[in-house]
Amino acid sequence: MNSFNYKKATLVLEDGIELSGYSFGYEMATAGEIVFNTAMTGYPESLTDPSYSGQILVLTYPSVGNYGVPPKTLENGLPVHFESDKAQISGLIISDYSETPSHWNADTNLGNWLKQEKVPALFGIDTRSLTKHVRKKGTLLAKIIFDKDVPFFDPNNTNLVEKVSIKEKIVYGNGKHKILLIDCGVKTNIVRYLLRYNTQVIRVPWNYNYHKEEFDGLFISNGPGDPQQCLPTINNLKTSLKSNNLPIFGICLGHQLVSLASGAKTYKLKFGHRSHNQPVLQCGTNNAYLSSQNHGYAVDSSSLNNEWEEFFINLNDNSNEGLKHKWKPVFTTQFHPEAAGGPTDTAFLFEDFIKEIEKFK
User: Fold this and answer.
1) Distance (Å, rounded) from C-alpha 30 to C-alpha 37?
2) Overall pTM > 0.90
């Protein structure tokens, strides 16, 4: 990309590293936690994923923007091409920017969209070298600065879930299976998947007291930040886990929250899992799947009590990727079966959840 017409800006890491790049997004200083994603495609989905709230995202694939950004269209009250109604990242770092997209569904280019969404973005940075640095050091705080400096900001010290969750209950569909969805920063493709199965999805805020609601299954969504910030959700889940037959399914942060409610512990990974090709093994089988992932925390499997067992493990680092209760219809995954973007190898888990609801009813 010719940088002649682009303003210079600086990426500063908390360990003192400074990298110069060129701005193609909104020109405003920003700060957050710097993380990297190694996926080759899917940036409209990633940039609108609420799990990235508070983070400066590095995309390792060299050229970004070549297929532009799709239009903001809605279906059943949900964005068709995005995972939420706005860009959620605090900043974007890429190597080469494709200013002129080529795609039948492109509504605008990436730079113009980021300006509309007020997200700072830099290109002209060696993102693979930067990623190797983050892998070695562990996840770092960072900031993008122009003319004025800003202090570093650790998003994990705040309740990011409260920021991204809805404020009032929303109901989708009118199918025969009622699913109560705790919105901790849900990706819209999760709602789309649930609606495929003749359901009514009752989406409620992260701290909503849902125990007086009528529903057939409980779903806990993905979301950003440290799961231990979500005490109201954890306390509500403790009550739900006392039920003998209620089907419960948690994804990503939802997996961590169910684990904490069961008495297990979570910890922060050195640099997290953010890609579309994380291999997971279904425990007790030879079934391995590629999965889409976006998380910086994980469940300590050694802290599980004797009512729980591992459902999946990560084949790269053996970290936990899911749990299931030994006799109750409760299971969780750290990865994203609904993908968007990424592989849909594990989408069968949604059908498994619906089958448990049918048994429960």
Assistant:
1) 19
2) yes
Beta carbons of 38 and 135 less than 8 angstroms apart: no
**Residue 244, pLDDT score:** 83
3-state secondary structure of 191: helix
* Residue 116 token pair: 């509309």
Largest CA distance in the chain: 65
Tokens describing residue 202: 């009752």
Burial label for 306, CB within 10 Å (0-12, 13-18, 19+), is: exposed
| Among candidate residues 105, 101, 111, the one with its CA nearest the CA of residue 81 | 105
Handedness of CA 190, 187, 216, 169 (dihedral sign): negative
d(CA 81, CA 71): 8
- In this structure, which topology does domain 8-157 adopt according to CATH? Glucose Oxidase; domain 1 (3.50.30)
CA-based R_g, the chain, Å: 20
CA distances from 40 to 257, 275, 327, 333, 347 (A): 30, 9, 40, 23, 21
Stretch 3-7: mean pLDDT: 80
* Domain extents in the chain: 8-157, 160-360
- As annotated, the active-site residues are 252, 336, 338
CA proximity to 338, closest of 49, 40, 47: 49
pLDDT per residue over 129-151, tens digit each?
A: 999 999 999 999 999 999 889 99
**Residue 258, helix vs strand vs coil:** helix
Fold classification of 160-360 is Rossmann fold (3.40.50)
CA distance 358 to 361: 5
In this prediction, residue 243 carries a pLDDT of 86
Reported as a pLDDT band with limits 50, 70 and 90, residue 269 is very high
Of 253, 254, 225, give the one whose Cα is nearest residue 53: 225
Q: Distance between CA 231 and CA 125 in Å, rounded?
A: 39
